[in-house]
Amino acid sequence: MPKVLIVEDDESMVAALRDGFEYEGYGVALAGDGAAGLRLVSEETPDLVILDVMLPKMNGMDVCREIRRGGNAVPIIMLTARGQEIDKVLGLKLGADDYVTKPFGFMELMARVEAVLRRAAGRPVEMESYRSGGLTVDFRKGEVRKKGRLLDLTQRELRLLRYFIGHRGEVVTREQLLDAVWDYDAAPITRTVDMHVAKLRKKIEDHPATPRFLVTVHGTGYKFTG
Amino acid sequence: MPKVLIVEDDESMVAALRDGFEYEGYGVALAGDGAAGLRLVSEETPDLVILDVMLPKMNGMDVCREIRRGGNAVPIIMLTARGQEIDKVLGLKLGADDYVTKPFGFMELMARVEAVLRRAAGRPVEMESYRSGGLTVDFRKGEVRKKGRLLDLTQRELRLLRYFIGHRGEVVTREQLLDAVWDYDAAPITRTVDMHVAKLRKKIEDHPATPRFLVTVHGTGYKFTG
DNA sequence: TCTAGAGTGTCACCTCGTTGTAAAGCCCTC
DNA sequence: GAGGGCTTTACAACGAGGTGACACTCTAGA
Predict the structure, then answer these.
(1) With 0-12 CB in 10 A as exposed, 13-18 as middle and 19+ as buried, what is B209?
(2) Do A6 and A40 form a contact (C-beta atoms < 8 A)?
(3) A190–chain B nearest CA distance, Å
(4) CA atoms of A48 and A46, how far apart (whole Å)
(5) Phi, psi dihedral angles at B214 (to 5 degrees)
(6) In the list B89, B91, B156, B205, which could disulfide-bond A111, CB 3.0-4.6 Å?
(7) B117 touches A at CB < 8 Å
(8) Residue B86: closest CA among chain A residues belongs to which residue?
(9) Which segment, A13-17, A21-25, A52-56, is predicted with the most confidence on average?
(10) Over the stretch B68-101, which tens digit does the pLDDT of each residue have?
(11) Measured between alpha carbons, how far is B32 from B184 in angstroms, rounded to an integer?
(12) For residue B105, what is the nearest residue in chain A, using CA coordinates?
């Protein structure tokens, strides 16, 4: 059964949500403020996050942004109060998957939860670790090893590698990468992607000039062959 | 610009939506009842359908079900009144992509429209794959295999093959190919098509000199026999 | 059946867009 | 203001596509 993390400070709301989700057979984890929520996202690895916008310590939108910044693609549904219309739009742009306006019925929330989980099921699964051809990646720790030797990857390189591994076997375009790894809306003419692919190759490939993992697909993009 | 079909009977709502979408640069088609909506979905081939649940003649959920029954994957956003909670759940199960509860702000609707269109853009509209006589084509991945062995096709070769498969059994002229695969307006006297057909044969045929798939129709063009 | 001429297969070369990569510039953090 | 990471710029190298040439094949008409 999927596990849901509820990040909410209103106790009566927490109780209602917990009962509802448990009744539906979900595993439930709770956080009372933004900072705790952010911590539990990595500790509990929930399948779904229900995130209130108004929270003590760190508001929901910042939490959302932080989760995504780490490259975590866990589905997020935001809870907003009426009249926070602009917040809603922002929320979706921040990387949330959906939102529900308070007050809402539990069935309404469940419909969105199921829709979001269904969509997420189509996405490549989050992996804990990856191992192939002398390359070992521990996504949890953010560690990459080549033949046991720890590599020093930057954040950007790690997110790039994570995306490639999550889409291994597929050809991915520069636009996809800019969208997923850089959060760019548009696709400006830039060589940034190529640049970082080159850097990544230099670190993970034995012979960067004749790559084994990260191969170029001329005219289209790149493909990670794991 | 994308075209949206609005299926709604409340005239003030129609006016507001039409103005809003036109302001955002969308093309707009209108239907005042369910039957007309269903008809316009195929006649206008919109990129998105906004569908009210309460409609004369045929209600929105039935329209939604009918659209999907025909195999049409056009994104659908349902408009529901408050309190139609069960309808919402049903709506999503019927194959709608999202719904918005009345009353709603236009920005709220637009956020959902953009989200739905973004998701839809990732979906392949055409055939997913093709398989015949030891030849396997995965259009999604852009992979072509012959007897399981992955072939290395260029972009142009892949487009050419895709067109041939899409028109298998028909004789296609060089002009058609130049138009569809090369985006040429005119048809200059060129050997380009023949060249690429030859290259493609060399890759997909067992005996390129006596082709099985890509046969020449002397005086006319080529025919893909799948 | 034979043959000329149109139609087709294919090679080598040239061109141009795409990609690899080093180096310089920018921006944030400490 | 020094350092590291990221982006942009510039140029070299590469690869795919287009063209012309020439050989080969097919077909219509004698």
Answers:
(1) exposed
(2) no
(3) 22
(4) 5
(5) -100, 85
(6) B89
(7) no
(8) A107
(9) A13-17
(10) 765 567 888 888 775 555 455 455 556 677 777 7
(11) 41
(12) A85
Query: Torsions phi, psi of B52, nearest 5?
Result: -75, 145
Q: Which residues contact A46 (CB under 8 A, 6 or more apart)?
A: A2, A3, A4, A5, A29, A40, A74
Look up tokens 């890509």; give the residue: B214
Residue B37 token pair: 């909506």
Are the Cβ atoms of B85 and A107 closer than 8 angstroms? yes
Nearest neighbour of B155 by CB, restricted to A101, A170, A219: A219
Q: Which residues have a Cβ under 8 Å from the Cβ of B119 and sit 6 or more positions away?
A: A119, B75, B97
Contact criterion met (CB < 8 Å) for B155 and A220 = yes
Query: Which of A189, A162, A154 has the alpha carbon at shortest distance from A174?
Result: A189
Interchain contact B115–A (C-beta under 8 A): yes
AA identity, residue B40: L
d(CA A154, CA A90): 28
Q: Do B92 and A105 touch (CB under 8 A)?
A: no
Q: What pLDDT is recorded for position B82? A: 57
| pTM, two decimal places | 0.54
- Average pLDDT value for residue range A111-123: 71
